[in-house]
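Severity: low
Component: inverse-folding endpoint
Summary: output formatting inconsistent between runs
Steps to reproduce: submit the following structure tokens with default settings.
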């Protein structure tokens, strides 16, 4: 058999060395917000089923959703919804082959982050 020749190859970058980029962070956030919105949908469905089930079930569900924790979850869900929408629009732009330059992609990522916060604040103030 032939001898295996050892080649000095670079190691993969570790988390301590790797500097996250705005595009990678926004990509991860898109996945997180997509999954987190499932929690809000489950809470809303629970609230609607409880409303159809009777006053005692509704009182329990409504008490949870209108508590400080429920308000926090629903407010963060609004933030996640706006962010996920804006990130989806960004991906549609990329799918069209536009805004693929690194600087433009970074600016779109920042726009998604800032836009989602601004739209969330507007939504919470108006509602």
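Observed output (run 2 of 3):
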């Amino acid at each position: 058999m032939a001898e295996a020749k050892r080649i000095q190859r670079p190691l993969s970058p570790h988390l301590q060395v790797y500097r996250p980029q705005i595009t990678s962070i926004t990509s991860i956030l898109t996945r997180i917000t997509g999954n987190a919105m499932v929690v809000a949908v489950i809470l809303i469905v629970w609230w609607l089923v409880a409303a159809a089930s009777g006053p005692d079930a509704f009182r329990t569900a409504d008490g949870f959703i209108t508590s400080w924790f429920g308000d926090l979850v629903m407010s963060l869900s609004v933030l996640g919804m706006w962010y996920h929408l804006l990130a989806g629009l960004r991906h549609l732009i990329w799918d069209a082959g536009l805004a693929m330059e690194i600087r433009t992609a970074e600016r779109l990522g920042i726009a998604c982050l800032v836009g989602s916060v601004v739209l969330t604040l507007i939504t919470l103030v108006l509602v």
